[in-house]
Amino acid sequence: MVGLVTMSEPSPEHETDSSVPAMTGDYVERALLAARDLIESTVTRHRRELAQDSWAGKALGQVPLAEVVDTLVDGAERTVSVVLSGGEEQSEVVCSALARPARGGRGRRAVRLLCLPRALDAARVRALARTDPRCEVRVCDGELPEALFIDGQIVYVRNEPPDPARGGGRQASLVEDPAAVQALELMFAGTWGNAVALEDYPRLGGRLCPTSMRRILECLRTGHTDEVAARDMQVSLRTYRRYVAEIMRELGAGSRFQAGVRAVELGLLPDR
Q1: HTH luxR-type domain spans which residues (predicted)?
Q2: How far apart are CA 81 and CA 247, in angstroms?
């Protein structure tokens, strides 16, 4: 006798719900990575809060710069923006912190370095810009305090001592008030927008200081004769013409008028 096999209908509890994603290997891996990033983010935030608690009651300017920068940069998840004043200690500490591998997905954070011209003397700044694709460097003139912006939430500002001759210490503050942070972010954004990209920043005039360089560019734009411009700058005619030749070569300009136009395009002169 041949046995009969009865094919039963699948019970409702065994039916596949098309609305539930299949637990593929990729799905599980993504879930685990997301969980890891969340845990690391929580741990990092906790470490930062512990560090800030340990700084309470102290003059923040007396806390080692490396400790503050390492703590804040390590906790950054989206953006790190820095004003580099050119101080050797700041350049070394900031570049070291940014060069270390970031935890989890924070390797995708954007980095912006706004440098005063003297900050470019530090080899590590140019090396970081050259090797780190996340890092964008721009150059601006002026006197700006050292500052570190983290995720649009925290700003660390450090000023020069009020009277170095009397042994005055650094003045530093940690800004977390949302309105104050937003105001500082807007100031940074305005300066950043007018700054020159590192690759476009010319090493103009050899030994020329930025002020003298701008005076020459202004003379070129307005059509001053070499004799008048040299007399105004109190240099010999030969020296002035050498400066002009160097500036034109660095700007890639074929004429003096073109040098003035190029200077405006690069933000070296204000647009009138």
Answers
A1: 214-263
A2: 31
